[in-house]
Amino acid sequence: MGKPRIVILGAGYAGIMTAVTLQKKLRLDDAEIQLINKHAYHYQTTWLHENAAGTLADERTKIAIDQLIDPRKIEFIQDTVTHIDVDEKKINLVQSELDYDYLVVALGFEMETFQIPGLKEYSLSMGTSNQAKILREQVESQFATYTNTGANTHPLTIVVGGGGFTGVEYLGELTDQLSNLCKAHNVKQENVKIITVEAAPTVMPGFDSELGEYAMQYLEERGVEFRLGTKVKIVKRDYIVVEKAGAVEEIPTSAFIWSAGVRANKIMEKSGISNNKGSVKVNADLRAPGYHNVFVIGDCALIYSEDGETYPPTAQMTMQEAKVCASNLVKLMKGDVNLDAFYFKDRGTIASLGRKDAIGNIFNNRKTFGKEAIVLKQIIDNRVLYQIGGWPLLFKKGKFKLFH
Ligand SMILES: Cc1cc2nc3c(=O)[nH]c(=O)nc-3n(C[C@H](O)[C@H](O)[C@H](O)COP(=O)(O)OP(=O)(O)OC[C@H]3O[C@@H](n4cnc5c(N)ncnc54)[C@H](O)[C@@H]3O)c2cc1C
Q1: Less packed terminus of the chain by CB within 10 Å, N or C?
Q2: Residues 73 and 184 grouped into a single domain
Q3: In this prediction, what percent of the chain has a pLDDT beyond 90?
Q4: 91 is in which domain, residue-wise?
C-alpha cells in the first residue's frame, strides 16, 4: 500500500500552520503531503491594513512558501482550486486534478457584499495582499489626481464602509499616513475628508464598548468623521447612498473602502459538505460532518463556544485550529481514531490604532491601551511569525520598532 495522501487547500494561517506542524511531526515516509495555494507566497492577513494604508511595504507581509516548507516532505503546487468534490474525493485546480486520502480545507474568507448594488464593482477592500495593494494605489492616485486637476473646490473624500475591527485598524494607519500623502501630492490636509459609515450604533460592534469609544475618540481627534447607525444602500463610482432612520443621503466619494463583512470562501457551497453560505459547522475534532477524512479549518469553519455562540473567525483561533488539525492527522496516520477535540483558548485581542496607540482585551478581560497595547500587538505579530517560520522568519520579517 502506498503512503496516504494529505492535500491541504490554502496557505493562509490555517493551511500554512497545518503544513509546518505536519512536517515537524511526520517522517518522510509517513505520508505524501501536497499544499495548494493561488500564490507562491503566504501573506500575513492581519497586517494587510498596513499595506493598504502604505505604512508597511507589501513585501514585509508576504512570505515565500518555499522558505517555509521542506520539499522532501511537502510538495507545493501553485494553482487555484476551482471545485471540491468530497464524495468523489477529487479536487479540481485550474491546471490539474488531484485526489486525496485526507483533505484539509483552509481556503479562508472573501468579501461579503450583502447584495448592496454597486459594492462589488466600485469598492476597494483589503482581504488579500493584492486587494490591499490596489486599495493603496487607488487612494494614492486620488491624491495625485486631486492636485493635477486643481479641483480644490470639493474635498478629497475617503469613505470607509464599516467601523469594525478591520475598518478601525485601517483608519489608524491612514490617519498616520495622511500628512505624508498630502505632502507627496501637494494636497492641503484641510481638503481631505475621512468618513466612516457604520450600521451599528457603536464602532467595533462586538468588542468592549469602552474600548470602542476610546478608538472612536482617538480617530475623531485625527479628523475622522463617524456616521453611526447609518447603512450603505448603494455604491456608485463617485458617491454612495446611505440611510439613517429613514433619511437618505448621498455622500460623494473619491475612494470607497469596504471593510464591513467577510464570509467563507464560496467554493465551499458546492463542495458537497453541508454549509451555511460556505461556512461549515465542523465536529469537535474539526472534521466536516459526515466525512471522516475531511477537515475544515480557519475562516471556512463555524465553531460554537460552550454557551452556544459562534466564535468570530480570527487568526488567533485559526492558528490554534491548525495545530489540532495537524495532530489529529498524525493520529489518523498512526491508526488512532480517538481524535482531539478543539477548545479555543482566548488569549485576548488587540486592535492597532496606527503606530501610536492600540486597544485591547487581555488576560481575563483586562483592558489595555497605549504603549502596553502597542507592545502586546507586536508580540502577537512576532509570535505568529515564529510559529510559522521559527527564528529565521522572525528575524527577517519581525516588527521590532516599538514607538515611532
Ligand atoms: C485587515 C485585516 C486585519 C485582521 N486583523 C486580525 C487581528 O488583528 N487578529 C485576528 O485574530 N484576526 C484578524 N483578522 C482576521 C484573520 O486575518 C482571519 O481570520 C485569518 O486570515 C483566517 O485565516 P485562513 O487561513 O482561514 O484564511 P486566509 O488568511 O484568507 O487564507 C486563505 C488562503 O487560501 C488561498 N486561497 C483562497 N482561495 C483559493 C483558491 N480558490 N485556490 C487556491 N488558494 C486559494 C488564499 O490566497 C490564502 O492564501 C484580520 C483580517 C483582515 C482582513
Answers
A1: N
A2: no
A3: 91
A4: 5-111+263-345
